[in-house]
Design goal:
Blueprint lengths: L1 E4 L7 E9 L1 E5 L2 E7 L10 E12 L6 E7 L2 E9 L2 E5 L4 E4 L4 E5 L4 E6 L6 E11 L10 E5 L4 E4 L2 E10 L2 E2 L8 E15 L5 E8 L2 E3 L2 E3 L3 E7 L3 E17 L6 E4 L2 E3 L2 H12 L25
Antiparallel strand pairs: 1-23, 2-21, 3-4, 4-5, 5-12, 6-11, 7-10, 7-12, 8-9, 8-11, 10-13, 14-15, 15-16, 15-17, 17-22, 18-21, 18-22, 19-20, 19-22, 23-24
């Protein structure tokens, strides 16, 4: 996948929310629904990637196994609804990810990691991995990793809003942000009056149940793009729904995405690919028993 693009429009709220279906693919042995990027909607603020994996029954032997692979120019946001996975990276971090806890990995100039569900209890794994494009001012910086067990929650009528990243209704997440943005987990049901930052564009990713706004209805694994210019919205959630509210100032820097890299040019991606495949030292090594994933050949190379 490769796309050169700018962020979304700042022309004001859409008359009707735009709903897109996810693309179904497979990652690490699990079926995933990819809501971003999609044709016609590459970013929401700095959010540039959204994979929803599960819900799927797993065992310690048949589960998620994503071997060591690299990243540049992005943050990974891993958010579980159920199950557990172990994150291991080239900085020496090993961290079990559990529901309601945030893993935030910042790649900067380069990092590698693996995600391994082997040895974890049997049950249902259900979660989301998202990427945030880093702006020019931080994308060449040193990589880092943070795990946040305690995140603020805001009570809404019939639902709970967990502030994963950014600030919502006066409650700030402790997670690092490099670009003005928002990520909130909404769980519950009913008619919710939700405050919004009007300079942000927003989207709703439906994980369970459904969400209705301005007469438009989004179902699981659909993305409802809302646009910028709204100071608030009245969102109706079906009982026991689970959705992600994503937002941010439109990302104005042109980016090129391909495989696991977010860059500004194809030549940057070619260099990162070569350094990973040739073990050039840029990404370090991941202490994992899973096999390293080689970077494939970009489609534009002869």
């Amino acid at each position: 996948m490769e796309a050169a693009h700018h962020g979304g429009s700042t022309e004001g709220p859409a008359v009707t929310p735009t709903i897109t279906d996810s693309h179904v693919t497979e990652v690490g042995g699990l079926l995933v629904h990819r809501a971003l990027p999609r044709h016609g909607r590459r970013t929401v603020g700095a959010w540039c990637f959204l994979d929803r994996f599960g819900p799927e029954d797993v065992t310690p032997q048949r589960t998620m196994t994503v071997g060591p692979h690299p990243h540049t120019g992005l943050h990974t946001v891993t958010w579980l609804l159920s199950g557990s996975v172990v994150h291991t990276d080239s900085l020496g971090n090993e961290q079990s990810i559990r529901p309601g806890q945030l893993n935030l990995m910042t790649s900067g100039q380069g990092i590698a990691h693996a995600e391994d569900g082997r040895g974890q209890p049997s049950g249902v794994v259900d979660g989301v991995q998202l990427w945030l494009a880093q702006p020019e001012g931080t994308r060449h910086g040193h990589p880092s990793f943070a795990h946040h067990e305690d995140l603020p929650a805001v009570g809404l009528s019939g639902a709970t809003a967990t502030v994963v990243i950014g600030e919502f209704a006066g409650a700030p997440s402790p997670a690092r942000v490099d670009w003005p943005l928002l990520g909130v987990d909404l769980a519950g049901g009913g008619i919710l009056d939700i405050p919004l930052e009007s300079s942000f564009e927003h989207a709703i990713a439906v994980l369970h149940g459904n969400a209705r706004l301005d007469g438009s209805l989004a179902s699981p694994n659909q993305l409802m793009y809302i646009g910028a210019g709204r100071a608030g919205m009245r969102l109706e959630l079906a009982e026991d729904s689970r959705v992600l509210l994503l937002g941010g100032q439109p990302f104005t820097e042109q980016i090129v995405m391909w495989w696991n890299f977010v860059a500004r040019s194809r030549s940057e991606i070619e260099a990162a690919r070569a350094q990973w495949n040739e073990d050039g030292g840029r990404f370090g090594s991941v202490p994992s028993t899973l096999d390293k994933i080689e970077a494939p050949r970009p489609f534009w190379l002869p």
